[in-house]
Amino acid sequence: MMRKLLCSVPGLVWAGAASADYAVNMPKGVTELSAETYEIHMLAFWWCVAIGVVVFGAMLYSLVKHRKSKGVQPADFSHSTMAEVVWTALPCFILLFMAVPAAETMIKLEDSRDPDMSVVVTGYQWRWHYDYQDSDIAFYSSLAESSLKARRLESGIDPYSVENYLLEVDNPLVVPVGAKVRVLLTSNDVLHAWWVPDLAIKKDAIPGIINETWFKADVAGTYRGQCAELCGKDHGYMPVVVEVLEADAYAEWIAGQTADTTGSNE
Predict the structure, then answer these.
(1) Among candidates 24, 40, 23, which has minimal Cα distance to 32?
(2) What pairs with residue 244 in β-bridges?
(3) Cα separations (Å) of 212 from 14, 92, 187?
(4) Is domain 117-265 in CATH 2.60.40.420, yes or no?
(5) Sheet containing 239-245, strands listed edge to edge, beginning at the edge strand earlier in sequence
(6) What is the CA radius of gyration of the chain?
(7) pTM of whole model > 0.85?
């Protein structure tokens, strides 16, 4: 039994490497708020590093310098009022120092007023539906055919040969660069979550409830994410792709979508 368990470990490691891109740290993203979120994350990280150095340093010093073999006698005092004041006041100061910028950023994240455009995002098992509220554009976004074929059992297709394996869709959400995009999230069946790390968005899609968030991408490009809520057997095959275009390219895309809609209605 133990031999089988040990032999399975390399396989598990390989499987994990095949399905995820590992990163040492969270991304800075392409929005102002994603950059602020990153800075708050790093602020908390370095405070934790400093606290760890001080605490473990003091422990190591005490273990080495006050060990029994050196004949050190234990202290005979019961408590120190000054020490209690310091180790109570100092954590409170550190928490306040981190809480103030975090609260400011959280308030900004919830302020979706005065958007340039609004999109209703509805989660399905296992795809997304995008409905542009300022136009007649609406479509489903599903896993791309290339990934769909490669994921099938005994497909004979090497997943490593598929570009953006499990992170590509047939119809991405398309928005203009520099526009404030309000995202209204809901679900048609079970819990889902719309997650795009580069936009600093991870919001639940709940049946019967409208959740609201927003983003304003400052850099044109393609940004990928996934459903982040276990939603059934094909949860891992429900990617999110947001394509941010320059103004001219976005206007051209809108014109093409409108023409397709008009033609289908006719």
Answers:
(1) 40
(2) 175, 221
(3) 38, 32, 13
(4) yes
(5) 173-176, 239-245, 221-227, 192-196, 201-205
(6) 26
(7) no
Q: Comparing C-alpha atoms, which of 92, 113, 95 is closest to residue 103? A: 95
Encode pLDDT of 198-249 as tens digits: 999 999 999 999 999 999 999 999 999 999 999 999 999 999 999 999 999 9
Q: Looking up tokens 């760890």, which residue turns up? A: 52
Which residue ranges make up each domain of the chain? 32-68+77-110, 117-265
CA-CA distance, 115 to 183, in Å (whole number)? 10
Take residue 109 and report the two structure tokens written for it.
Answer: 């994240």
CA 166/CA 19 separation, integer angstroms: 8
- Edge-to-edge, what's the strand order for the sheet holding 138-141? 138-141, 127-132, 117-124, 181-187, 211-215
Helix (H, G, I), strand (E, B) or coil at 152: coil
